[in-house]
């Protein structure tokens, strides 16, 4: 039986959980449903809610409650719960309110203007707003650093990926800088004779209605175990996984000439969704019951998208639904090749499994040095061009739109997020290696298109763990070792070069 | 320039407005979109929000702010604004928190059990829960009465219809008790030869898909001036008008064999929606900028549904859309007669324009005497049967399901609401009489199906007035006199007996 101060803290955090529920659903509505004329009122309402949540974190007495709770008799999981509450509270209250407001304002303005500036390739206009965002993010990192003793950029990573640091990322990405560009070229050479045809009849483009694509999407979600009693599929311009664990809202976007992106996007978001839907019930409403980190979250979506979704047996299961609902005479070889084709390009979100990490390494190097003050905003385009040439052999000179202005993340100061994507891909490869080693039948079942033993492993080892353990402990308990990027390298060689 | 205390009050009420925005959108989502598994978490989140709003009303200092603002130099509309803020504040803070919670709990339990009990015609089971709801509502009325000096039942009416009293309602409904039963019989005799055919080809039932019905619904909304940049049409089990003035969400329900109810339901909700969408912009976010009362709100929906929607010229405009999208060979006579047919029945929500007020009078008489303590819960079924026989010549003996258990209103203690429906019908008739007298061309335009001059009149005289004036002043300014039920009587005689 936990003591009264621990109890008061859990009640306070459950209050925050309920308010965040409103935030999630109303934001989902804004992205999927709201007519544009409602936007100003919606923004005001969301901003009022943010203030309310901020006040709940800052309520008088919490400092004392945390101190007193520390002295109460807590069992191990309550200690873990207290640790996570403290972490959220510190993150939420560490910055002066003035800085939070200034950053939010500068971020909104920069992001809003960016939507147009990107379209017009207007780097000069963008850089002007962006410098303010960078100044405030550096200020934020400096304050967080002075309180936590971490390096400034590390405090921003920590927000998304606790315990991850610049030093560890350098160790993870360093070797990849060496092997990845060569691997990309080898795979391209191996694939040079592949013919990739459009998906319509006789290799022509077809026209695929939203309803038909959605019908296949729902079948896929069902196959991947999505719980429709606790979630939905809808449409938005930028696909995402939102809502709350009790009601997970995933979205997609249908392109009439190419259904392959919506189908794979749905698999990706279903990975996020199953993690959310299967978080530990007994810790619902408390930080310790939430997802471990953004890297682990991406590991689940990328496990679904890359480890499962690009597996021939899984595509073989999906193909008949595609043939039936989308009236396509696509064969399995074409279907599989479409998803395995490696082709360096400008745009991160369009990148294949092999070139994607190059986009991330580049962004990581730039944002790391930008926050540390090693480079300035004006240095970015040249550095971008240089690294694109180095990793992918393409140039973005004077092409800001498809270069350093392509992503939304930096526009509102979300520095430290990008590494999560590739960390996720690495964790996913490591999980797959571990589970097939622990239970060799898992791989055999997958060869038959049966993913149930795999998702059961994920449920037990990842989803049901919530935030009870640190990331390193979670990964060690599941796989026997902490993050080891070698599994990802092996996975790529195996899949793309048949190299064991 | 308003003083600092008036200013502080407006900021506080704007805060409440933003929080209520969240409440509206999230409740809309719950009724239209949410999978059922999300319900528990949603209820918790909404309950947390209710507490937050309650705390905002009860913030320390508001009593002083109201006192000090009263002494500040305010212009007339600021005085009106202050009056409405005070009214909302008093309504929200008058009751002890314990009673609010107890009533909310008893109401939820009674309503939840009712859904099943109604189905099983289980009056005994229902009465048990319902007695607790009545006890708490009487307690609520008593406390409100002791503070305001009004009669207990009047304090409940006042919640929905400020300044309306039992005494005035008795004066309004008293004469109608005399003339309505006779009118119903006369109209029925007049209509006895009418043949009402199903809507399909050659008088057979058709099957009308949701998409086709929605297509006609959207055309109708457009014709009635709905602003789609600030609102939407969706589906829910119980149709309603929700959302916020900046983003009004109306809903309907499609029946596959009969499109007439969804079409007229959409017209009704569009009336509510246009009122909300056209409330005064300069008072947005403050109580004085909101709709005047539930009676006036219903007057707008019923104006659209009854005055306009049942007008032959309007139906003539709609008919081609019906013929086109719903592949019906319906003619205008059949279409019109379907909506004009008068037929006493058990169910209020299925009632026609002429019998509807009988259902309301009956409920009014019962709830008035129930709250005053003249009757008890156990007396209701017999009284219901007696009044149904008196007004509509049908008996509900032992039929609780289609009798006193048919409505949701009482189950959670919403006593005082029912009169709003018939007050709305009366106001609507009075508005129509006034505008056609002030601008005779309005009636002529309507004969051509042009409703624009009518909605402009409503915009100027009703929608744009918000809560600036009391209901009596609003109605006097628009029509030259306060509520006069004779216009409604005249309207019914004219439409159903061609009697001028």
UniProtKB/TrEMBL annotation, chains A, B:
* UniProt KW keywords: Carboxypeptidase, Hydrolase, Metal-binding, Metalloprotease, Protease
Question: What EC number(s) does this enzyme carry?
Answer: 3.4.17.19
Q: What enzyme class is recorded for this protein?
A: hydrolase
List the Pfam families hit by this protein, alphabetically: Peptidase_M32 (PF02074)
- Function per UniProt: Broad specificity carboxypetidase that releases amino acids sequentially from the C-terminus, including neutral, aromatic, polar and basic residues.
Q: Which family does it belong to?
A: Belongs to the peptidase M32 family.
Protein name per UniProt: Metal-dependent carboxypeptidase
- Originating organism: Celerinatantimonas yamalensis
The organism's taxonomy opens as: Bacteria, Pseudomonadati, Pseudomonadota, Gammaproteobacteria, Celerinatantimonadaceae
């Amino acid at each position: 039986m936990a003591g009264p101060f621990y109890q008061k803290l859990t009640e306070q955090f459950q209050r925050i959980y309920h308010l965040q529920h409103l935030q999630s659903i109303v934001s989902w509505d804004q992205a999927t449903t709201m007519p544009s004329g409602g936007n100003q009122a919606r923004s005001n309402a969301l901003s009022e809610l943010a203030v309310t949540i901020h006040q709940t974190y800052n309520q008088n007495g919490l400092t004392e409650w945390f101190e007193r709770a520390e002295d109460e008799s807590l069992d191990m999981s309550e200690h873990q719960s207290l640790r996570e509450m403290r972490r959220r509270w510190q993150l939420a209250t560490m910055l002066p309110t003035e800085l939070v407001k200034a950053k939010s304002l500068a971020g909104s303005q920069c992001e809003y203007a960016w939507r147009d500036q990107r379209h017009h390739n207007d780097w000069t206009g963008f850089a002007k707003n962006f410098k303010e965002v960078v100044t405030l993010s550096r200020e934020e990192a400096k304050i967080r650093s002075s309180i936590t003793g971490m390096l400034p950029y590390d405090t921003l990573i920590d927000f998304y990926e606790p315990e991850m640091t610049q030093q560890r990322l350098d160790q993870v990405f360093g070797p990849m800088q060496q092997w990845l560009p060569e691997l990309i070229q080898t795979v391209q050479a191996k694939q040079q004779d592949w013919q990739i045809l459009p998906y319509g009849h006789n290799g022509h483009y077809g026209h695929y209605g939203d309803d038909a694509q959605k019908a296949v999407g729902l079948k896929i979600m069902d196959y991947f175990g999505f719980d429709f009693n606790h979630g939905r599929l809808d449409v938005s311009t930028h696909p995402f996984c939102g809502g709350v664990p009790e009601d997970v809202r995933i979205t997609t976007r249908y392109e009439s000439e190419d259904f392959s992106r919506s189908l794979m996007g749905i698999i990706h978001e279903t990975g996020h969704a199953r993690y959310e839907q299967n978080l530990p019930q007994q810790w619902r409403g408390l930080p310790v019951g939430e997802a471990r980190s953004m890297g682990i979250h991406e590991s689940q979506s990328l496990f679904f998208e890359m480890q499962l979704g690009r597996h021939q047996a899984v595509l073989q299961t999906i193909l008949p639904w595609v043939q039936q609902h989308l009236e396509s005479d696509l064969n399995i070889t074409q279907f599989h090749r479409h998803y395995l084709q490696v082709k360096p390009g400008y745009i991160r979100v369009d990148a294949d499994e092999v070139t994607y990490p190059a986009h991330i390494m580049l962004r990581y190097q730039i944002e790391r040095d930008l926050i540390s003050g090693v480079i300035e905003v004006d240095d970015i385009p040249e550095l971008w061009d240089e690294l694109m040439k180095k990793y992918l052999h393409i140039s973005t000179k004077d092409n800001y739109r498809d270069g350093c202005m392509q992503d939304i993340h930096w526009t509102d100061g979300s520095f430290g997020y990008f590494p999560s994507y590739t960390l996720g891909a690495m964790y996913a490869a490591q999980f797959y290696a571990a589970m097939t080693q622990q239970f060799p039948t898992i791989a055999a079942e997958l060869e038959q298109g049966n993913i149930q033993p795999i998702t059961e492993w994920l449920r037990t080892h990842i989803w049901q763990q919530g935030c009870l353990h640190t990331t390193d402990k979670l990964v060690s308990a599941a796989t026997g070792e902490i993050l080891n990027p070698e599994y990802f390298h092996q996975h790529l060689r195996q899949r793309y070069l048949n190299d064991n």
